[in-house]
Write a structure and sequence with these properties.
By secondary structure, the chain is an alpha/beta fold. It has helices at about 45-50, 130, 135-145, 175-185, 200-205, 205-215, 240-245, 260-265, 285-295, 310-325, 345-350, 355-370, 385-395, 405-425, 430-435, 440, 445-450, 455-460, 465-485, 505-510, 520-525; strands at about 80, 105-110, 115, 120-125, 150, 165, 170, 190-195, 220, 235, 250-255, 275, 300-305, 330, 375-380, 400-405, 500.
Amino acid sequence: MANTYSRMNASAATLTKNRTMDSVTPSSGLCVTCVDGCIGMCEVGKSAYRGHEVLYPQPYGVITTAAEKTYPVDYSHFNIMGTAVGAHGVEADSDKAVFPAVNLDVCFGHDKGIKYRYPWHIPGIGSTSVAKNNWDGLAIGSALAGTGLTIGENVVGMDNEAVFKNGRVVDTADLKRRVTLYQQHQRDGYGAIIVQANVEDSNLGVLEYAIEQLGVQCVEMKWGQGAKDIGGEVKIDDLKQAQLLYERGYVVLPNPTDPDVIRAFEHGAFKAFERHSRVGMVEEEAFAARVAQLRDAGAKYVFLKTGAYRPADLARAITFASRYKIDLLTVDAAGGGTGMSPWRMMNEWGVPPVYLHSLLHQYADRLAKRGDYLPALALAGGFSFEDQIFKGLALGSPYVKIIGMARAPLAATMVGKTIGRTIDTQQVPVYVSRFGNSKDDIFVTSVELRQKMQDAAFESLPTGALGLYTYYERLGQGLRQLMAGSRKFGLEHLSRDDIAALTPEAAKISGIPFIMDMDAAESDKILG
């Protein structure tokens, strides 16, 4: 498989493997010798008896998944450029130009009214079980850190307690809880809770309800995401819920009202139904009307999120965002993490991160140079550490203000939650217990948070929130160190000159200079 970008026919994501692990045909992923009598451990074999179930990563509900395809160019093909001279944003004094002095605050929106303590947020965690089961940590951790959190698609539609009147939502349990949990822990006006809507959400009036009943200021229209080319999907293991979602207008497979299907489910022929969302049909007139509706309903900020579609759709997204004064455009690239996207689709469709983000910069530059309005831009697609955040902000500067991350923050939240369970049961594993056996000992940010909060409030914090907050603290310090090394002490000073392409191909795609060509004129001048 070493000569291919893709891995075929066997993956931990689909719980499959080859019989002959060291001898696999690169093009198909089949074992070089496929033997009559094999029980079917590979993806082809498993598909022979579980069919469409093998389209999706497994086990559903307790995992997030992202592509394992190796793209020809990715963010590792760039290096961060430091310098030994000067400082931007602080006096060029060794006693003042220290990395804790780097300011990571970012403001955006038409009136610069949204402010974050860090230049990243979570761009969409929706109706999947893994999101719902970790919401306490995600919401409280994000709010305490002063960053944004987006409630993704289908949350209202999946809420068994939601109340509808004439096909429109008038009350909820889950969405109300998610919004309120964030709002209760927000500090000093930093951060934002954002509610997103797809086709079904729009039909149900979710954004109007969020604005009018829950006091949400930021709403987001969703064209798609980087993980898949279709609408959102989840598995439903309860017949009554599958029938409820079918009645609410979702595509549910197989039909949960069909008597034969009901009998097959009850007899255990299959274990779960699939709930799918519809794909949107983008038209400029309808887009303009929807933006106006949301503003008339009281939305203070309107966002748009688009996925890894072909370049023409990216051009369409940034043009519409410009014409109708959208506050934030998020561009999510191929391979991104999700709850349950079809596995091969996640690996093989869409424009990968460096390619899509480079096109976005080209398009934004074109609009900016002719004086058009530009929204703040956000990049998403596999970001997880401070070096990648730096590179994304630099590649997209001066237009990109935010990096979107979902899988990594969710991983930090889940680890924090799991550690909390081991503390409660007094079974802290050796790997962790070397730091201690309590929240105060294990989570390095506990001292800081105790100082900022009352003891009772700190004690009530879920450890999932501590995990996310502490992960963010690490990212913040790491990013400050990288920026100080480049002598950039505020995000507004980051530029494309702060990174270099390591290969001619990376340089060609991104427009970032090849490392051997950087500073050529300045070096000649220094050398005389």
